[in-house]
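Residues determine shape. Next comes a sample protein:
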Amino acid sequence: MASLGRRRGVPVSRERGVMAATDCYIVHEIYNGENAQDQFEYELEQALEAQYKYIVIEPTRIGDETARWITVGNCLHKTAVLSGTACLLTPLSLPVEYSRYVALPAGALSVACSALYGISWQFDPCCKYQVEYDSQKLSRLPLHTLTSSTPVVLVRRDDIHRKRLHNTIALAALAYCAKKIYELYAV
């Protein structure tokens, strides 16, 4: 491990007194050999598992794939929350005879998105990160040392409250849907 050099990602040292050495990891875009892409992926995986606060991804392909993966996870989370909320609030706003036509599909969508998120994203270390777009926060990072003009910057965020929210809403929607389906077929 003595050769962190240019091929390997380098933990960033303290810059202008705002960043500790363990806060940021840069996956540099330096092509040495035919399997450089595999090396970039390995470095990213190691940085995610090491739980750095910030991860800067220079290689465009891996950065874009990671940003898309995070966006899909965010979309599933938001869809689970919004459709579950619609399922639970529809009976309060629509007449009883019409509410089931909105509430049941919305509840099913919420449960499906929450289950898919739980299966596909829950154990992925990438789910703890969000893509950072705030230029004020980005200005604190040592981006001037990069060779890429459009790096993807990931910031680690605690997602326990987010998971609790969409799981609670999805379970409530599931309970409501199960109750309504029972009422429809039992009567």
The radius of gyration is 22 Å.
